[in-house]
Inverse folding.
């Protein structure tokens, strides 16, 4: 094994690592041996110099992201094996070669033992997004390994890490192709067609993690008047239309998102008269729509990206859900979500409970939702369960 610099932990701080948690916080470190730079591979040892793990060093509260708990050589073969394991899981759950659904997550960071790495597959194009310098420095290794693992299924690899690698680093990342060129930006999800803006869109271009929740929405949409708030490019709106909704209104503050929403509706329906999109502020739109809709979807962006913003985030969730409870028709259905990792399932449920109490409505939980199987959660890293959702019946 290569001679990596050592991170020596304080006495007792090895316990989380022995339970396979993949993060080491800066406060747990006693000493750093060697001239360690951000992104370097480091060997983590106990206060008694016992080997614990290998990971990438980074500046910040999370000082090491662990990707291996065994002594081994870290090279291109190591990363390719990791990718192959991730690929085999997606094959097991039915995504490889699925013509009806050719968009899925191939690598889900800690969930696949690759903290700081996200790779989404879009009908032949893999979009990489790295959240740590260590993983970003391996981007070409990942591109080559993807070609080996995916073979002819892969046409291009596009890296979209410009806005996601740590801002304190001195690396000026630029988005661009690592392999091949984009051939198509149309994907299929359960047979529904979507135009994906990989280069300018949010995340890697599409909210893949809501796939199963969109499908569930379709079952509830028949003959309903539906409002999709924070609709982005209209994913929930397309499923509501396919489910037989009487009308669907999509709301997003972004003109570009509204433009893509209308394109996606037109991709799937010859008659688009049941749908209308509005470029508007979500909070303002929810003010004066009393009894106008009997199904509302609230899928806001992450109100809290870190714990310091938690209080304000919970206030935002409370405000938006209170408005929905106050405005929805009696007997209505509310799909409400949080994608903030800093907001726990308990936080979210209690906040929605408070919103219901403020509105004075009687509310029942029909479903408790999370991310799908291609976004696996490492059982030793519960923080990876970032997507929380509730389907509520409002009397």
């Amino acid at each position: 094994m290569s001679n990596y610099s050592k991170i020596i932990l304080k006495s007792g701080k090895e316990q989380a690592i022995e339970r396979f948690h993949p993060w080491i916080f800066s406060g747990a470190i006693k000493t750093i041996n060697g001239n360690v730079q951000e992104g370097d591979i480091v060997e983590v040892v106990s206060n008694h110099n016992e080997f614990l793990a290998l990971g990438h060093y980074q500046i910040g509260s999370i000082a090491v992201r662990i990707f291996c708990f065994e002594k081994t050589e870290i090279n291109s073969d190591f990363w390719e094996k990791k990718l192959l394991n991730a690929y085999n899981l997606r094959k097991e759950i039915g995504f490889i070669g699925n013509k009806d659904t050719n968009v899925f997550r191939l690598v889900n960071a800690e969930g696949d033992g690759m903290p700081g790495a996200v790779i989404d597959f879009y009908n032949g194009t893999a979009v990489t997004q790295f959240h740590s310098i260590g993983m970003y420095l391996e981007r070409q290794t990942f591109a080559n390994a993807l070609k080996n693992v995916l073979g002819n299924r892969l046409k291009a690899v596009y890296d979209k890490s410009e806005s996601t690698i740590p801002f304190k680093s001195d690396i000026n990342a630029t988005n661009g192709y690592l392999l091949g060129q984009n051939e198509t930006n149309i994907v299929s999800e359960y047979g529904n067609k979507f135009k994906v803006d990989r280069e300018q869109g949010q995340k890697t271009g599409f909210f893949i993690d809501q796939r199963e929740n969109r499908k569930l929405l379709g079952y509830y949409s028949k003959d309903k008047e539906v409002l999709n708030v924070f609709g982005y490019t209209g994913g929930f709106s397309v499923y509501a239309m396919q489910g037989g909704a009487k009308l669907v209104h999509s709301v997003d503050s972004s003109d570009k998102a509204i433009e893509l929403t209308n394109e996606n509706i037109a991709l799937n329906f010859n008659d688009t008269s049941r749908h209308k999109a509005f470029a508007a502020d979500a909070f303002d739109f929810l003010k004066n729509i009393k009894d106008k809709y009997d199904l509302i979807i609230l899928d806001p962006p992450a109100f809290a990206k870190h714990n310091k913003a938690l209080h304000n985030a919970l206030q935002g969730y409370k405000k938006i859900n209170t408005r929905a409870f106050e405005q929805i028709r009696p007997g209505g259905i509310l799909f409400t979500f949080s994608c903030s990792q800093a907001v726990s399932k308990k936080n979210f449920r209690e906040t929605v409970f408070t919103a219901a109490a403020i509105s004075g409505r009687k509310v029942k939980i029909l479903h408790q939702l999370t991310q799908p199987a291609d976004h696996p959660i490492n059982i030793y890293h519960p923080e990876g369960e970032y997507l929380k959702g509730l389907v509520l019946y409002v009397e």
About this structure: Residues 234 and 261 are 5 Å apart (CA to CA). The first strand starts at residue 5 and ends at 9. The mean pLDDT is 93.
